[in-house]
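Dear Dr. H.,

I hope your travels went smoothly. While you were away I took the liberty of generating a structure for the chain from your last submission, since the lab meeting agenda had it listed for discussion. I wanted you to have the full record in hand beforehand rather than looking at slides cold. The sequence, exactly as received, is reproduced here:
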Amino acid sequence: MDSILRLIEHIDAHRLLVPSMFEIDIDEALDKRDVEPFDSDWIKAHARVSDEDIDTRDRPSLVELREAAYLRCYKLTQNSELSGYVADDFGLIGTYLLLDERDDWVNALWCAYRDGHFPCGALTPCGGNLASMIE
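The corresponding predicted structure, in token form, is as follows:
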């Protein structure tokens, strides 16, 4: 849960989801997420954890993470569709953290956000422990 709280702190302090990452053609970026390989990679990563039970004590922090991501993105872009995608991504990242699951593609998703890029298209898988990648 500490990693979830750190993510929320980074979003609230504007260290994540910075304005420059949304200086993109939003429609084009969203289109790249709705086709191969991004779409199937995201669906596979989500399917791996979708049936897992998250401790009821951890659920509020996951909801808070998703809300923080959505609101920050919406404040910067006024685009509800984009904000929904970002919230879903942070929900996926948060779920992997809470379940202590490992997935190189989810790590790559996180690394894109960490590095100030909106993830779309092909992501290069990144090995390691997701929690240790969050500062």
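Two observations you may find useful: Helices lie at 2-12, 26-33, 38-49, 59-77, 80-99, 104-114, 130-133. The mean pLDDT is 96.

With kind regards,
E. W.
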